Amino acid sequence: MSLLVSVLREPAAIRSLDGRAWDLLIRQARHANLLGRLHYRLADAGLGAAVPAHPRSHLQSGAAMAEAQHHSIRREIRHLRQTLDAHGIPLILLKGAAYVAAGLPAARGRLFADVDILLPQERLADAESALMVHGWVSSSTDAYDQRYYRRWMHELPALRHLFRGSVLDVHHTILPPTARLKPDPRLLIEASIPVPGLAGVRTLALPDLILHSACHLFHEGEPDNLLRDLTDLDLLLRQLAREDAAWDALLDRADRLQLVGPLRLALRYCQRILDTPMPERIIARSGCQAGGGAGQRLLDVIYTRVLRPQHPSTADFFTPLARRSLYIRAHWLRMPPLLLAYHLAHKALFPPTPETRPLSNEKIDPKDRA
Questions:
Q1: In this model, does residue 322 exceed pLDDT 80?
Q2: CA 315, CA 223: separation in Å to the nearest integer?
Q3: Alpha carbons 50 and 239: distance in angstroms, whole number
Q4: What's the angle, vertex CA 240, arms to CA 220 and CA 183, rounded to 5?
Q5: Range of the domain at 20
Q6: 9, 227, 337, 342: which is deepest, by most CB within 10 A?
Q7: Which residues lie below 8 Å from residue 110, measured CB to CB, with a gap of 6+?
Q8: For 82-141, what is each residue's pLDDT tens digit?
Q9: Which residues pair with 201 in a beta bridge?
């Protein structure tokens, strides 16, 4: 277990840290994009005064950076609301933007750099036209990538604002249509809830936020933010736990949306890694702690290594293989075999040129992507 995870599980462990251990903790938290979240975790545990001055400055800096990003996100939400509302298009926020807009505990200290929204598929063309009029441009000029996203993916190619530099991901569902799991986006949209104080802005309901976070985490091939995403799930589940019956409703919702698998993995690793509390009946009903066969043991080998700070101090001999296996698994879940072979062959034979690579945004660290 990494030092960062140990402290997230038991904040009082910081009382025994020496200077070298504090340095390692800060480095691991920075690599995991969790400096701000760690700051609030320690503050909530009443341990702010126990943090030495130098580490405290790093933690406070992480919290301040997160708050600056949240301010930018709130500004973008206002702009998006005005743009889409003029065309009668609903604005439904996903992931980090939803946490911030709704004031959820999962927003505190969270770093991210783009806004994710969900729209009905039949309104995508109208929304894209409206956004382009207001300064949003596609981040990809490659014809294949445009076709790849529009035919096979669950979102448009990322959009970037010409003047503000903001990044926007426009989803029409939460998993690619070519994926093995096919949650019905209409159910998500119908169950979305208004954000108090923000007329015309909605988020997914809390169970759907959890299920989307689980989908994103366990279908993602880049490990840099996976521990951050697991802490998102931990905080969302702890919020859900305020009402005991909500646990059963979450499992029922996962069954209706065909997302039992991602939720089972989310519950498994939240409890194993972050010690997220959950009722015994939910553990039994979900089977999240069952031993499983060879496939589950292989996933344990992979996820116990990628659900760590991606810092050299946490790596072992199998870590590079686990990272590569995660990438392969993500693509395997995303596409059927023939389409996957075609896609990988195209990328190998026709790599992007400097002219067709996504537009860069120097203000944004790629590790901060939501």
A1: yes
A2: 13
A3: 27
A4: 45
A5: 3-368
A6: 227
A7: 36, 37, 66, 96, 99, 100, 228, 232
A8: 999 999 999 999 999 999 999 999 999 999 878 999 999 999 999 999 999 999 998 776
A9: 91
β-pairing, 114-118 vs 167-171, is parallel
Residues recorded for the chain: 370
Q: Are 189 and 212 in contact (CB under 8 A)?
A: no
Output the furthest CA–CA distance in the chain (Å, rounded). 58
What is the Cα–Cα distance from 22 to 224, expressed in whole angstroms?
21
- Whether the pTM exceeds 0.85: the reply is yes
184: left (phi over 0), alpha (psi -120 to 50) or beta: beta
- The amino acid present at 227, given as its one-letter code, is L
What the block records as the tokens of 25 is 């903790």
Q: What is the count of structural domains for the chain?
A: 1
Give CA–CA dist 161/132, Å, rounded: 9
Task: List the CATH number of the domain containing 92.
Answer: 3.30.460.40
What are the tens digits of pLDDT across the range 202-241? 999 999 999 999 999 999 878 889 999 999 999 999 999 9
Q: Which residue has the tokens 């979240």?
A: 37
